Amino acid sequence: MEAVRSGILFLPRLLRRLYDWVLSLADHPRAGTWLFTLAFAESSFFPIPPDVLLIALGLAHPRRVFHWAAICLAGSVIGGAFGYYIGVQFMDAIGFKILSLYHLEDKYLLVQDLYRQYDAWAVATGGFTPLPYKLFTITAGAFKIDFPTFMMASLISRGGRFFLVGGLIYLFGPRVKRFIDEYFNLCTLIFTILLIGGYILIKWVVT
Fold first, then answer.
1. What would the DSSP string read from start to end of the chain?
2. Residue 56 CB-half CA count within 13 A
3. How high is the pLDDT of residue 157?
4. pLDDT in tens, 42-85
5. Which of 114, 125, 144, 176 has a C-alpha 20 to 30 A away from that of 202?
6. What is the model's pLDDT at position 190?
7. Residue 9, phi then psi, degrees to nearest 5
8. Among 26, 121, 29, residue whose Cα is nearest residue 38
9. Distance (Å, rounded) from C-alpha 29 to C-alpha 25?
10. How far is CA 149 from CA 22, 63, 124, 155, 202, in A?
11. Are 52 and 23 in contact (CB under 8 A)?
């Protein structure tokens, strides 16, 4: 995952150590538990995305890749609910500090506009794109977005992301690693554009 590694070089030394530690968990006998924990934590406060461990596990055990994707999805959706709770109950005390830690203050206003236009379905774009998912979960709670819709959007978007990675690994094995490293973010961007475009089209037809 050289493309990812090269980007990590610009991060503080602590984050680089965290990244390497996450990769090392692929060899842990309880790797599934760690994957769930990582996906949960990344949805609210942890900096390293679960895709890193998901890809490593999928390449090491391609026949179990959908099992890993399901674990990743469960952890991420439940963690998203925790991020939502932080936004609802502790935005001033904790939420803004988490966003500030990752320099997401300016993105907060961007997501605010997305929620005003698309309500909880903005989560569907946030859960699939390279933007930190914690930005969307905490902000959703801060703006008290409808929780059941928020959870459904999380399930769809995070499931689409993780099972897309799993499907590519299952079909193409190690050969797809370079494609994921170099073009996955582009694919998610295209998906997001299509998703928003479809939402606008449906809203236009209905109204």
1. -HHHHHHHTTS-HHHHHHHHHHHHGGGSTTHHHHHHHHHHHHTTT-SS-THHHHHHHHHHSGGGHHHHHHHHHHHHHHHHHHHHHHHHH-IIIIIHHHHHHTT-HHHHHHHHHHHHHHGGGHHHHHTTSSS-HHHHHHHHHHTT--HHHHHHHHHHHHHHHHHHHHHHHHHHGGGGHHHHHHHHHHHHHHHHHHHHHHHHHHHHHH-
2. 22
3. 86
4. 998 988 889 889 988 998 888 899 999 999 999 999 999 999 99
5. 144
6. 59
7. -60, -25
8. 26
9. 9
10. 31, 33, 10, 10, 17
11. yes
pTM for this model (two decimals): 0.78
Q: From CA 23, how far away is CA 31, in angstroms rounded? A: 10
Q: Say which residue the tokens 């299952």 belong to.
A: 170
Of 123, 51, 40, the C-alpha closest to 83 is 40
